[in-house]
């Protein structure tokens, strides 16, 4: 009997392939239908004013919670911070989009950061700002520019309330939601995502930022259509500026990156194979020390019981000698007085480097 039975070839009809995922068309603002979106790039107040006028004239109107509102796709970009645990950089770019145009406000290169018109638009409650992880972007804008954005819509939350069964198959990210709801994809190259957004933008950076904002407004429009088809009248949650909480530390503009092994000491760090590095006084680290605070036995309980001595000891004792109260005094042969240990109630002669202590008796 053969070990393997021959497998009969099977034929699949066209309908059998209906559920198999096919190649997805990338979403791009320049390929939008019925016409490509106009790209507006603003680095001055005048350019920002022109871009905002274009946005206001083309923003779609939706009835949200029984109130007509204009809607804008929203996103931000910041320069990546590669120091683990370090503070985040300031918001460098703000993107707003309609179905007719997308505007890139390079706020880190604008004379006043946010122009008066852009500030007013972000704070206007009649203009809905829709995006993914928009609450984190709003927190950055609040901290960097002291602006509380109003009327924000978190697209993953809107999808859960509108089409929960589809959102269950997606992750709350822009690319995953585009693929799950629109059958489109979006380019998320790490090289561009982690690039320097504070420098003048390249063509690839502009396309990346514009597509993010355009994808946000496209997702919002699709979710609102799904709600209308299902007669879904659930209230849409609008996030107000009062919900924005600043959590990230500020990044000072004149910050100096300090190496991890940096110490505020005159001697340099010891390198492998270099031996003892000498300090500014010409002595090796083995013979340099800082005397610890000491207590004069006769004044141990008084206000002047603690004295601090800071000097270099040329002769180092090879052992640590302790003396108790019963021995009655300080060794006159030792060049320096002993140190007092409050925890053991003992005096000792210290021959290694210890940090300064501030005892308040």
Automatic annotation (TrEMBL):
<protein>
    <recommendedName>
        <fullName>3'-5' exonuclease</fullName>
    </recommendedName>
</protein>
<dbReference type="GO" id="GO:0046872">
    <property type="term" value="F:metal ion binding"/>
</dbReference>
<feature type="region of interest" description="Disordered">
    <location>
        <begin position="254"/>
        <end position="333"/>
    </location>
</feature>
<feature type="compositionally biased region" description="Basic and acidic residues">
    <location>
        <begin position="300"/>
        <end position="312"/>
    </location>
</feature>
<dbReference type="GO" id="GO:0003676">
    <property type="term" value="F:nucleic acid binding"/>
</dbReference>
<keyword id="KW-0269">Exonuclease</keyword>
<dbReference type="InterPro" id="IPR051132">
    <property type="entry name" value="3-5_Exonuclease_domain"/>
</dbReference>
<keyword id="KW-0378">Hydrolase</keyword>
<dbReference type="InterPro" id="IPR036397">
    <property type="entry name" value="RNaseH_sf"/>
</dbReference>
<feature type="compositionally biased region" description="Basic and acidic residues">
    <location>
        <begin position="260"/>
        <end position="270"/>
    </location>
</feature>
<dbReference type="GO" id="GO:0006139">
    <property type="term" value="P:nucleobase-containing compound metabolic process"/>
</dbReference>
<dbReference type="InterPro" id="IPR012337">
    <property type="entry name" value="RNaseH-like_sf"/>
</dbReference>
<keyword id="KW-0479">Metal-binding</keyword>
<dbReference type="InterPro" id="IPR002562">
    <property type="entry name" value="3'-5'_exonuclease_dom"/>
</dbReference>
<keyword id="KW-0539">Nucleus</keyword>
<dbReference type="GO" id="GO:0008408">
    <property type="term" value="F:3'-5' exonuclease activity"/>
</dbReference>
<keyword id="KW-0460">Magnesium</keyword>
<dbReference type="GO" id="GO:0005634">
    <property type="term" value="C:nucleus"/>
</dbReference>
<dbReference type="Pfam" id="PF01612">
    <property type="entry name" value="DNA_pol_A_exo1"/>
</dbReference>
<keyword id="KW-0540">Nuclease</keyword>
<feature type="domain" description="3'-5' exonuclease">
    <location>
        <begin position="45"/>
        <end position="228"/>
    </location>
</feature>
């Amino acid at each position: 009997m053969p070990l393997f039975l021959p497998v009969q070839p099977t034929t699949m009809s066209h309908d059998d392939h209906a559920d198999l995922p096919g190649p997805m068309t990338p979403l791009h603002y320049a390929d939008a239908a019925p016409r490509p979106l106009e790209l507006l790039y603003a680095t001055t107040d005048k350019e920002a004013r022109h871009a905002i006028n274009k946005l206001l004239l083309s923003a779609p109107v939706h009835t949200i919670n029984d109130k007509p509102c204009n809607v804008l796709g929203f996103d931000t970009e910041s320069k990546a911070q590669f120091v683990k645990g370090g503070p985040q950089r300031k918001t460098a770019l703000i993107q707003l989009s309609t179905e007719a145009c997308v505007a890139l406000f390079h706020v880190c290169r604008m004379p006043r950061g946010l122009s008066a018109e852009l500030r007013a638009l972000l704070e206007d409650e009649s203009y809905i700002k829709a995006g993914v992880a928009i609450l984190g972007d709003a927190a950055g804008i609040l901290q960097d520019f002291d602006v509380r954005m109003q009327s924000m819509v978190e697209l993953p939350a809107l999808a859960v309330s509108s089409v929960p069964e589809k959102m269950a198959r997606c992750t709350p990210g822009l690319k995953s939601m585009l693929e799950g709801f629109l059958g489109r994809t979006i380019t998320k190259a790490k090289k561009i995502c982690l690039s320097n957004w504070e420098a003048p933008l390249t063509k690839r950076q502009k396309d990346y930022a514009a597509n993010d904002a355009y994808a946000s407004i496209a997702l919002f429009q699709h979710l609102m259509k799904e709600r209308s088809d299902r007669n879904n009248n659930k209230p849409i949650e609008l996030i107000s500026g009062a919900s924005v909480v600043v959590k990230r530390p500020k990044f000072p503009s004149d910050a100096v990156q300090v190496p991890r092994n940096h110490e505020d000491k005159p001697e340099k760090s010891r390198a492998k194979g270099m031996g003892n590095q000498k300090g500014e006084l010409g002595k090796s680290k083995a013979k340099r020390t800082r005397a610890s605070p000491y207590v004069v036995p006769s004044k141990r309980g008084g206000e002047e019981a603690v004295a601090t001595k800071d000097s270099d000891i040329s002769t180092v004792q090879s052992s640590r000698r302790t003396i108790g109260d019963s021995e009655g005094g300080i060794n006159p042969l030792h060049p320096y007085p002993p140190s007092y240990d409050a925890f053991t109630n003992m005096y000792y002669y210290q021959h290694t480097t210890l940090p300064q202590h501030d005892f308040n008796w």
